C-alpha cells in the first residue's frame, strides 16, 4: 500500500466524509495542506478540534468526591465522620458530586495529544498548536490507552462535538499504538489495515450519502433466505454499502488490504473468502426481492483500495444470473480523481436516469 503525501491528504477527506463534522469551518484550511506523515495529519485535526473545544468550553460531568470538611456538603459519610469524632476533630466526612472537566472524554484527548507530541512524527508548528491547548487540560488525568472502553462513550447534545475528535483518537490509539520490547508505548508510522478498513468502509458509504442523492445509500443487514426460518446460529450478514434505485440494487463490500489478491502458484487470484461473501450477500438479497414479486436486479462489487502491486483486482463476472464485479479504488491521486472513480461506479451501474 502506498502512503505518499497525496494518500495521507486523502485520509483527511476520508475522515471528513466518515464523520461529516469535519466540514466545519475550523477544518477547511487543512484541505489545502500537504502532510508528509500520518501523525502530522492527526495532530492537525486534533489541535484544531481541541482549540475549538476550549473556546466552546470543555465538556464537564459530575464526578464523585469524598472530602473532610468543617461543614456539611452533600452526603455525610458516617464511618469517616465517626473517625473524626474519636480523634476529637471538628470535621465532617462528606461525599458529594462536583462538575469536573476530568472525565473520560477529555482524558482521551489529552492522552492522545501527549502521545503525538512525545512519539509522533509531528511538525514543529503542529506541536506548538497542541502545546497551546494542553494548559486548559491541566486538571485532566492521563489514561492508560489499553484500558479505554470505547463502547462506553455516549454522545448527546452537550458532547456531540467530541464525536469526531474521539474517532481520530481511536484511530491513533488503537490503530497506531504499539509496545516496544522495553514496555514503552510508541506510535507506528501508519494506521493498521484493520482500522483503515473500517474508515474506508465508512468513507465510501458517507460519500454516496452526501454526494449522490440520485441513489439511496445504506448499510443494512441482509436477511438469510431460509425455508424454515431457523436462523438461531447463522452469522449476521452486515453489508458495508448498499446502493439502490427502485429495485435495482448494488451491494458493495469495501476492502482495505496491503495485498488485495492472493498468490496461487505465482498467479494472482481473487481472495476466495471475499468472493464467497459478496456472492452470498447478492443471492440472499435477490431471494428477498423475488419474494416480493417485483422486477429487480441485484449485483455485487468487491471494492478494494488500490495497492502498489503489479496486478490489481479488476473484472466483471456473471454468476448464476447476477453480475459480480471487482474494482480497485486509487486513493493516491488528487481527491477529484477519487471522486470521479466513485461517481463512475454509480454512473456505470445505474445507467438509466432516475
UniProtKB/TrEMBL annotation:
<keyword id="KW-0540">Nuclease</keyword>
<keyword id="KW-0255">Endonuclease</keyword>
<dbReference type="GO" id="GO:0016787">
    <property type="term" value="F:hydrolase activity"/>
</dbReference>
<protein>
    <submittedName>
        <fullName>5-methylcytosine-specific restriction endonuclease system specificity protein McrC</fullName>
        <ecNumber>3.1.21.-</ecNumber>
    </submittedName>
</protein>
<dbReference type="Pfam" id="PF10117">
    <property type="entry name" value="McrBC"/>
</dbReference>
<dbReference type="GO" id="GO:0004519">
    <property type="term" value="F:endonuclease activity"/>
</dbReference>
<dbReference type="InterPro" id="IPR014407">
    <property type="entry name" value="McrC_bac"/>
</dbReference>
<keyword id="KW-0378">Hydrolase</keyword>
<dbReference type="InterPro" id="IPR019292">
    <property type="entry name" value="McrC"/>
</dbReference>
Amino acid at each position: 500500500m502506498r502512503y505518499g503525501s497525496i494518500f495521507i491528504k486523502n485520509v483527511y477527506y476520508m475522515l471528513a466524509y466518515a464523520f461529516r463534522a469535519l466540514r466545519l469551518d475550523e477544518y477547511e484550511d487543512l484541505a489545502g495542506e500537504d502532510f508528509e506523515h500520518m501523525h502530522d495529519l492527526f495532530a492537525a485535526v486534533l489541535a484544531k478540534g481541541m482549540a475549538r473545544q476550549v473556546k466552546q468550553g470543555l465538556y464537564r460531568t459530575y464526578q464523585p468526591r469524598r472530602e473532610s470538611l468543617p461543614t456539611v456538603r452533600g452526603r455525610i459519610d458516617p464511618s469517616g465522620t465517626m473517625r473524626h469524632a474519636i480523634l476529637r476533630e471538628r470535621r465532617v466526612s462528606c461525599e458529594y458530586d462536583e462538575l469536573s472537566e476530568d472525565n473520560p472524554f477529555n482524558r482521551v484527548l489529552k492522552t492522545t495529544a501527549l502521545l503525538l507530541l512525545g512519539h509522533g512524527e509531528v511538525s514543529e508548528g503542529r506541536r506548538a498548536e497542541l502545546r497551546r491547548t494542553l494548559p486548559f487540560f491541566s486538571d485532566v488525568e492521563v489514561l492508560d490507552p489499553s484500558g479505554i472502553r470505547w463502547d462506553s462513550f455516549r454522545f448527546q447534545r452537550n458532547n456531540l462535538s467530541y464525536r469526531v475528535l474521539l474517532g481520530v483518537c481511536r484511530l491513533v490509539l488503537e490503530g497506531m499504538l504499539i509496545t516496544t520490547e522495553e514496555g514503552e508505548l510508541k506510535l507506528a508510522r501508519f494506521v493498521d489495515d484493520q482500522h483503515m478498513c473500517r474508515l474506508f468502509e465508512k468513507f465510501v458509504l458517507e460519500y454516496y450519502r452526501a454526494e449522490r442523492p440520485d441513489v439511496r445509500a445504506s448499510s443494512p443487514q441482509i436477511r438469510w433466505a431460509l425455508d424454515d426460518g431457523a436462523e438461531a446460529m447463522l452469522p449476521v450478514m452486515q453489508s458495508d454499502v448498499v446502493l439502490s434505485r427502485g429495485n435495482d440494487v448494488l451491494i458493495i463490500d469495501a476492502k482495505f488490504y496491503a495485498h488485495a489478491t492472493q498468490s496461487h502458484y505465482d498467479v494472482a487470484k481473487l481472495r476466495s473468502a471475499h468472493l464467497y461473501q459478496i456472492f452470498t450477500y447478492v443471492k440472499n438479497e435477490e431471494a428477498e426481492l423475488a419474494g416480493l414479486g417485483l422486477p429487480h436486479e441485484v449485483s455485487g462489487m468487491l471494492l478494494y483500495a488500490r495497492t502498489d502491486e503489479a496486478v490489481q483486482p479488476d473484472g466483471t463476472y456473471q454468476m448464476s444470473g447476477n453480475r459480480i464485479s471487482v474494482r480497485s479504488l486509487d486513493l493516491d491521486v488528487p481527491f477529484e480523481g477519487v471522486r470521479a472513480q466513485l461517481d463512475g461506479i454509480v454512473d456505470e451501474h445505474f445507467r438509466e436516469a432516475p
